[in-house]
Design goal:
By secondary structure, the protein is α/β, with parallel strands linked by helices. It contains ten helices and 19 strands. Helix content is 30%, strand content 27%. The strands form five sheets. Strands 7, 8, 10, 11, 12, 13, 14 and 15 form an eight-stranded mixed sheet that branches. The longest helix is centred in the N-terminal third of the chain and has 28 residues. It is found in: Cell envelope. It comes from Cytobacillus firmus DS1.
Length: 380
Amino acid sequence: MKKGMKKYSITLLSFIALLLVWNQTEAEVSGPPTIHLRLLETTDLHGNMIGYDYDDRRKTVEFGLSRTASLIKQARNESPNSLLFDNGDILEGNGLDEYAYRSHPLDMANVHPVFKAMNTLLYDAATVGNHEFNYGIDFMEESIRGANFPYVNANIYVEDSNQLEEDDLNYFNPYTIIEKEVTDTAGEKHKLNVGVIGFITPIVEEWNKEYFRGNLKVKNIKETAEHFIPVMKSKGADIIVALAHTGLQSDKGLEEKKGNSVQALSKVNGIDAILFGHSHSVFPVKDELQKVPGIDLKTGTINGTAAVQAGYWGNHLGLIDLKIVYEDGEWKVKSSLASIRPIYRTIKNKKKEVIPADPLIEQIMKKDHQDALDFLKHKK
């Protein structure tokens, strides 16, 4: 092909692509109000606020929220409307968490180190994981009191030992409804009520039985969702996001108790998106284990419901992009696309960073990181 023709062809293709995008945007502007909402997820951080391995005493590019934070800022800049969530397992798992538990008094003046970082990133809501209970209920309560965002969970209840379901009390607020100001494709402002509900795998009741026995009990995820989703709709939720600290499949030991997996939760009517964790996996990804009925890896849906899982320790950021259209007097999710973004890649057997760490998070964590190192150096 001649050079002039090649240049002409590239220009023509670029023009056609631009025309297609313009036509799509033009259709959205002239049609019913349309919102593009981006949901962002971190999960199973286990105290890893920076890229440092407290076991091996070395820096690393393989994990750390300070690097994920750069992905979060990048993803926010790409979308006019976004919300950020965490899926639990943050208060136990590394040297920083151990330091916070054993030597860090927690009160209004002393916030748990992990929340210093998370508050800076302006999370919108979170749910608890099973490791939140490893240091006991009191420590968990004292810690999350330092979060500048709501914690939700719908299936942990106060143990009253009376066998009656109707008077059971939720231990946490089961859900929250975020009144989000959003901008549609025509530049108009709207109020979107985003309902956020949390769930945890019931295996936590067994794994932390010394704290749960006589104090707390955990109910079936799917049955709990079927109860609360209509309630949330009646309270004005336009769309509903589930934060599920449970895996794609149920934990071993729960096989007999159906309804405690993400697969089961995805079949509940009214849930528009599921952000999940616990199993330290990523979704969607080309994996033989994820090639099961009901899963679409191209769009990242499970039984038609948008879903994402962002790995662990901050090594990935999870994203769900929702297209929401106002029809027949209500907002409806018309399409979705789930994806994951890694903080590093392996090139020729070497780990290479995809994005640099956020300097603000690094600075905020500097003192607590050094105090944790001093604590670990002198601990018996």
